[in-house]
Design goal:
The complex is a heterodimer of chains A (345) and B (158). Chain A is α/β, with parallel strands linked by helices and 345 residues long. Chain A has helices at residues 38-42, 49-71, 90-107, 116-122, 167-177, 184-192, 217-233, 239-264, 280-292, 302-305, 310-321; strands at 7-12, 18-24, 28-35, 80-86, 111-115, 135-140, 145-150, 157-161, 269-273, 296-298. Chain B starts with a strand and ends in a 7-residue tail after the last helix. Classes of the chains: A alpha/beta (345), B alpha/beta (158).
Chain lengths: 345, 158
């Protein structure tokens, strides 16, 4: 097997985005295309699986051709096809998986099944300045809020996760409740930028201060309850100030737990991953706290935090190096389960 | 159809009621959970899953649409919050609707009514999240046992 010039075609269709990318040697992005469905879903206030699947089918073939063209590579020069096959919406995942299988079979190249959440973590490796192990990873998205410990490539130990709502889900639901729009993360962030936290008070929900479990359902409820009370009382209910306080309460817990996790594991690096890693306040606060504790923060570039296929190609590259290939019977799974390869000791 | 109402004062009590309900459920049962954001639908689902012997994590399926837990029977925990205005009876859901498990559906659509046996409506009075929730349980005829089980542990409102 060749040692360099390894080009992986990455395919991502787990949710809203159809994405295709070509990545060389795990960190040189030759092309990275995303066809977003957010405009379509905005009308419904959320993702619609049947619509998502149909849109993926419509664009995936031409997007792949476009990605290869932009990479300046004929199809035959791809070394493997990597596809996100879990977790996500089953119908949506199957579009990418079926397409990847056919493509790999047609080109006679190996097929690689990638865990979408693992790929989010690997977005941190799409750079010259790669993270150093051991590290702690904070994975925050619409469906996940987890702290993981990583000692080497492709091995994860779950330190803690959410017991109810994921951070991104809380953002989405509160944004919708307050009438701020979809997707909720950017909507809350934009509203919060026009105000400051502290005018209202919302709880910081730590559960046990000594563990790494999260709970955001209570914060969501507290925000909605406060909003209802303000409206009833006839006081000036200022939505931007409430958004700012909500964002602060959520970010504060994420930051403190991540720093504590890094200290407990005695690691010098924290990797941020997932769509919520695009939140400006989280990036700002965790960077400041980490630097005060002599810890380095790794955050993927903004466009690599949200769903994309370069991260899938990158995770696929490390599986390629291990010879971890899938058969043409590769299936899609809605729930994760693959992410944690080593139970918490 | 028979309906009963209970006042629920805490998340712990909501979990407890779910666990009691679980004792009277049968494979193939479908439970529709209705209520505003933050009403306690996922909390009740957690109690039902625990009562069915599942010891793992029950979290909100809003993003994944469906979580599957392995209790004494398979438990399908669905959440149609993000599926507004769209067909929900496609083949991806067939196993969870018509299989031998127990299906819990948050944010069901009106067409799901035809599917279901047991309905749970959780009301937040006047939008006050600090106040007790009013939980209304509706069971089809022949399934009053579910209500009897609960009546053995908590008082229904009259």
């Amino acid at each position: 097997m060749k040692q360099s010039g390894i080009r992986i075609l990455g395919i991502e269709t787990s949710c809203d985005e159809t994405a295709v990318a070509v990545v060389e040697d795990g960190n040189i992005i030759r092309s990275n295309l995303v066809a977003s469905q957010i405009e379509i879903h905005r009308r419904f206030g959320g993702v619609v699986p049947e619509v998502a699947s149909r849109r993926h089918i419509e664009v995936i073939a031409s997007l792949t051709e476009e990605a290869l063209k932009e990479a300046g590579l004929p199809r035959q020069e791809i070394d493997a096809v990597a596809v996100a096959n879990s977790p996500g919406l089953i119908g949506a995942l199957l579009v990418g998986v079926s397409f990847a299988k056919a493509y790999a079979y047609g080109l006679n190249k190996p097929l690689i099944g990638v865990n979408h959440m693992e790929a989010h973590i690997y977005a941190n490796f799409l750079t010259e300045n790669k993270p150093i192990f051991p590290a702690v990873c904070l994975v925050v998205s619409g469906g996940h809020t987890s702290l993981l410990y990583m000692e080497r490539h492709r091995e994860f130990e779950m330190m803690g996760e959410t017991r109810d709502d994921a951070a991104g889900e809380a953002f989405d639901k509160v944004a919708r409740f307050l009438g701020l729009g979809y997707p909720g993360g950017p909507a809350v962030q934009n509203a919060a930028a026009l105000a400051s936290p502290g005018k209202y008070h919302l709880p910081r929900v730590y559960l046990d201060r000594n563990d790494f479990e999260f709970s955001f359902s209570g914060l969501k409820t507290a925000a909605m309850n406060l909003w209802n009370k303000l409206q009833r009382s006839g006081e000036d209910a200022e939505v931007n100030y409430l958004a700012a306080e909500f964002q602060e309460a959520l970010v504060e817990v994420l930051v403190e737990k991540s720093i504590n996790a890094a200290r407990q594991k005695n690691v010098k690096q924290i990797l941020l991953a997932g769509g919520v890693a695009a939140n400006a306040r989280l990036r700002e606060r965790i960077t400041a706290e980490a630097s005060a504790n002599n810890i380095q923060i790794h955050i993927p570039a903004l466009e690599l935090c949200t769903d994309n296929a370069a991260m899938v190609a990158c995770a696929g590259y490390y599986q390629y190096l291990d010879g971890d290939f899938a058969g043409l019977d590769l299936n899609a799974f809605p729930q994760s389960g693959l992410l944690v390869k080593k139970a918490c000791g | 159809m028979t309906s009963k109402q209970i006042e629920v004062v805490s998340a712990e009590q909501m979990i407890n009621i779910g666990a009691i309900m679980a004792g009277a459920l049968r494979p193939g049962d479908r439970i529709l959970l209705r209520g505003e954001l933050g009403a306690g639908k996922t909390t009740l689902a957690k109690g039902i899953a625990q009562g069915l012997g599942f010891e793992g994590r029950v979290s909100s399926p809003t993003f994944t649409i469906m979580n599957v837990y392995q209790g004494q029977v398979p438990i399908y925990h669905l959440d149609f919050y993000r599926l507004e205005g769209e067909e929900r009876l496609g083949e991806e859901w067939e196993e969870s609707y018509y299989g031998d498990g127990i299906t819990l559906i948050e944010w069901p659509a009106s067409e799901d009514q035809d599917l279901a046996g047991i309905r749970v409506e959780i009301e937040i009075k006047d939008g006050d999240y600090d106040a007790p929730r009013r939980v209304k349980l509706t069971v089809p005829s022949g399934r009053q046992q579910i209500l009897k089980e609960i009546a053995g542990h908590v008082d229904f409102e009259h």
